[in-house]
Design a protein that fits this description.
The chain is an alpha/beta fold and 362 residues long. Helix content is 47%, strand content 10%.
């Protein structure tokens, strides 16, 4: 059976095909950038939570038309900041790249370059109805860069305070916690932002993500939604990988159903897909957080003095429940924790696939 997999990240497709949820966050963002003087927003969340997808989704014509009274007056321009490439740009080159986007989108020109050229452009546009909104994906790579002094951030702040200019940034933590120096950290630039945290999907959003794109593609994953959430949790990236694998399995199933054996194959394929990501996540946790995870997969109680750690992990999407009923949200991650800690998880009772993907490390 030949079906286009709507979850495949290797195919070029409009992001809106697999975008679900975030209605409250989207409303807050557009209420800010759609104000008489556009206001800046900082999107904060763990890797894989969907920050980049949300930025792309905001820029689609339909979404802008749905949320803005005069979408034609708002110019959203995205600059994804690559740690490997863009950080070689000087602050002046960075500003020049913004000027180039303005000139391309508004057909305005300036004979100047650098800071002067950027200011010339936004002054020319200030008498028009245009609101210029720059979307900076992974902006923390800039705040962590020693090549960007406080004067750079002061310039951006001045532009936003005095003209119809705003910024939408993404980062894993609040930007002030990701600054290269205390001088930058104390810059009033960060005061112009409203922080909007992105958390894992709620149950309803996760089900929409699983069911709607697959049904639209002709092969609904509805009957397997519990299995997907049980194994992957509700972090958007993790869900996407799980849905991609199961959709392919369903497309190849002669009976139109996924057998028990194929579900076992799914567990193995998903574990292989997530192994490197789980390793990265585990290694960033300090020993106190690792102890919380290990206690939970061993069905041990968390001491009340460490409950705040569990609450923090729940907020970031690694745990579900509250008080005495915390549990690790993803059985896939449970298996990985069991592998690296040398503990047989109490709850899963499954074969641990990770022994195939790693030499054992603590």
């Amino acid at each position: 059976m030949n079906r286009n997999n709507p979850y495949s990240l290797s195919e070029e497709k409009p992001v809106s095909r697999i975008f679900s949820g975030r209605t409250m966050e989207i409303s807050r963002i557009f209420s800010r950038i759609g104000a008489a003087r556009p206001q800046s927003v900082s999107l904060i969340g763990e890797p894989g939570i969907g920050k980049s997808s949300l930025l792309e989704y905001l820029r689609t014509e339909k979404v802008m038309a749905d949320y803005l009274e005069e979408p034609e007056d708002v110019v959203l321009m995205e600059k994804k900041i690559s740690k490997d490439n863009d950080l070689e740009q000087s602050p002046v080159e960075f500003i020049d790249s913004l000027s180039a986007m303005i000139m391309d989108r508004t057909k305005t020109s300036s004979e100047d370059s650098g800071y002067e050229g950027f200011m010339d452009l936004i002054k020319k546009l200030d008498d028009t109805l245009f609101k210029l909104v720059f979307c900076f994906d992974d902006f923390h790579h800039i705040t962590e860069n020693t090549g960007y002094p406080m004067e750079f951030f002061s310039f951006l702040r001045s532009a936003a305070n005095n003209y119809n200019v705003a910024y939408i940034t993404t980062s894993p933590l609040e930007l002030q916690k990701l600054c290269v120096s205390q001088v930058v950290e104390e810059s009033p630039f960060f005061n112009i932002f409203t922080n909007i945290p992105l958390r894992p999907f709620k149950q309803k959003e996760a089900l929409e993500f699983i069911i709607e794109p697959s049904a639209a593609a002709g092969l609904s994953l509805k009957d397997y939604s519990d299995k997907i959430i049980e194994w992957a949790g509700t972090v958007p990236m993790d869900l996407n990988f799980a849905c991609e694998i199961l959709f392919d399995s369903l497309a190849e199933a002669d009976s139109g159903r996924i057998s028990d054996k194929e579900l076992k194959d799914f567990e193995e394929k998903y574990s292989a897909t997530m192994a490197a990501e789980y390793k990265k996540r585990w290694e960033k946790f300090g020993p106190e957080f690792k102890d919380v995870f290990i206690n939970l997969i061993s069905a041990k109680k968390i001491h009340k003095s460490r409950k705040y750690l569990a609450i923090e992990l729940e907020r970031k999407g690694y745990l579900a429940g509250e008080s005495k009923d915390f549990k690790v949200l993803s059985d896939g991650f449970v298996q990985y924790i069991g592998f690296v800690s040398g503990i047989e998880p109490v709850r899963t009772g499954r074969k641990n696939w990770f022994t195939r993907f790693f030499s054992k490390k603590s």
